[in-house]
Amino acid sequence: MTELISPELVLLDVALGDASADVIRKLAETVAAEGRATGAEGLFADAYAREQKTATGVPGGIAIPHCRSEAVTVPSLAMARLSQPVDFGAKDGPADIVFFIAAPSGADQEHLKLLAKLARSLIKKDFTAALRAARTSQEVVGLVNEALGLTGGEAQAAPAAAATASSTSTSTVRRIVAVTACPTGIAHTYMAADSLVAAGKEQGIDVQVETQGSAGATPLAQSIIDAADAVVFAVDVDVRDKQRFAGKPYVQSPVKRAIDEPRVMIEEALATAADPNGRRLAGTAGGPSSAAPEGRESTGAKLKRALLTGVSYMIPFVAAGGLLIALGFLLGGYDITKYADTIVVKNNLFNLPTDFGTQAWGPLGAYLGAVLFKIGALSIGFLVPALAGYIGYALADRPGIAPGFTAGAVAGFMGAGFLGGIVGGLLAGYTAHWLASLSAPRWLRGLMPVAIIPLVASIISSGLMFVVLGGPIAFVTKALNDWLSGMSGAAAIVLGIILGLMMCFDLGGPVNKVAYSFAVAGLGAASATNHAPWQIMAAVMAAGMVPPLAMALATVLDHRNFNATEHENGKAAWLLGAAFISEGAIPFAAADPFRVIPASMLGGAITGALSMGFGITSKAPHGGIFVFFAIDNFLLWVVSIAVGVVVTALATIGLKRYVGRKAPEAVEAEPVAA
């Protein structure tokens, strides 16, 4: 196996700059200079993007920036002992020992296990003391290789191994189980695990951890989970098979907190277990703890989470379906809607159609266009059922999915549309959740989640939609669609302004998602005689592209008021904005919200108004400039975006210069949650 570290990758007693970006860049250059990466810039970009998600400083003056990158050709460790410590976000101050872990995207498991072992070693005081005392690069290499070569002892006291320990001990020791996981799964996952285990030993508490990282994961035995007093989730990503912990008291936080405050997290978990009203993980129906309270989440927060979950799962259906429909129009012409059903049923590649619109690219274009259009239309047809189904899932876990999809299908059948899907999903989710909370006989528990709850919840929620709610909601939906279809002139421009403001208010947050969902939900009502939904879609997409593009332009126009971090983010924001990814402006908004967000809203409102005023349409729900073929009056659409971008960029620069001005070096982009 190729050595992970060599003396050439060790920099002792050097000053690499004042910011974490400077140190990471220098270490990336060191790795690339040794032929272990195809380019320093690509490696730096991936590593710094990871750093922005979660700061990599840990207690003890240590930092472990790391990433998996396409630029890396050989798994590598680069180490710097800094003469001028640099802040990497640790609570106890800046770091003077920095290990840069660079792994290829397809790193093998053995290398990943070694990298994880190194991360674990760095929380041991004797190891870090030896690193600080080392006099030569070769001595550092020896210390690292020794740590990587340990077999047994504390270095092998891996949480996954602990998972096999017996849960039938008669000891009265309190027990905690935990799951640790970070986005990369190389360093923080394992350091958090070992920190929790070590803190548990100090407190006389048995802590067993499941590490869901890149080096593989060994699930905790269900008997160990069942015997635990409480659960600690130290994660930055979703927990795999979370239902295994149903009914358990739990605490949850980002993975880094388990490294910084493992003792506090354990104490919080035990306090939650001792509190009858403490937070419990909701589970599947009929389980021993399905009636346990779900926690301290307010009704409003729970409702918001459910709606955003439904929208999040709905969007892929819409995005894929909308793009397929756009491609169908491109190949088959805009009158393909008249011929698509007949063509896909009666024709094939060896029997091309003869009856099709004049806009099609010949018989082959008509056939392929019809196929793509029909696939897209069927995908779009899942919009309301998927929305309702995953609202139900967010409220009641898996038992809520089937009733939610059914209620959503009923809403679509009744013409209740997007609003009906929301109502149906909420009915299904709350009904399923209520049924899951009922106490069931032991012989019936197995049937509850797979048969009883879906059956009863579907009857109740869909029945209410048919008998009581579907008609009134369909009336409101039709009235809304008729109003939008009749919009023109000033009214359409006002709507564009409102949608533009919403798209730029929180850059991918709830308000942004409401505006986007409103636009995509209307696509199903668009037709050759009703272009209003397509116009709304064009305005929403254009406004959403403004903030990242404007921030990219602002960093080019004004170097003084943006720091090195923001200049790096600006380079990426060009592509993110062009692809309609509003989140590309989040690093700027997080660092300076009271200047960036108002400026973005101003530009977004102007772009939305111009797009609606010009009557531009988009038959694709996503993709930005890359779906130019689906946008009517594309040049005017680009002009609308360009005007908003310039306005936002100039407004941002003006606000930074003249409103509560800060020195650029004092403005450091905060890490953004993944």
Element layout with pairings:
Blueprint: E1 10-14, H1 20-33, H2 40-53, E2 57-58, E3 62-63, E4 66-69, E5 76-86, E6 95-104, H3 109-121, H4 125-133, H5 137-148, H6 159-162, E7 175-181, H7 188-203, E8 206-211, H8 222-227, E9 230-235, E10 250-253, H9 255-260, H10 262-274, H11 299-332, H12 336-346, H13 362-380, H14 383-396, H15 401-413, H16 417-437, H17 442-445, H18 448-485, H19 489-505, H20 510-521, H21 532-557, H22 564-578, H23 586-591, H24 593-614, E11 617-618, E12 631-632, H25 634-658
Helix pairs in contact: 1-2, 3-7, 7-10, 11-13, 11-14, 11-20, 12-13, 14-15, 14-16, 15-16, 15-18, 16-18, 19-20, 19-21, 19-24, 20-21, 21-22, 21-24, 21-25, 24-25
Tell me what you see in this structure.
This protein is α/β, with parallel strands linked by helices and about 675 residues long. It folds into 4 domains: about 5-105 and about 120-150, Mannitol-specific EII, Chain A, CATH 3.40.930; about 160-275, Response regulator (Rossmann fold, 3-Layer(aba) Sandwich); about 300-480, no CATH class; about 485-665, no CATH class. The chain has helices at about 20-35, 40-55, 110-120, 125-135, 135-150, 160, 190-205, 220-225, 255-260, 260-275, 300-330, 335-345, 360-380, 385-395, 400-415, 415-435, 440-445, 450-485, 490-505, 510-520, 530-555, 565-580, 585-590, 595-615, 635-660, and strands at about 10-15, 55-60, 60-65, 65-70, 75-85, 95-105, 175-180, 205-210, 230-235, 250-255, 615-620, 630. Strands 1, 2, 3, 4, 5 and 6 form a 6-stranded mixed beta sheet that branches. It has a 4-stranded parallel beta sheet with strand order 8-7-9-10. The relative contact order is 0.07.
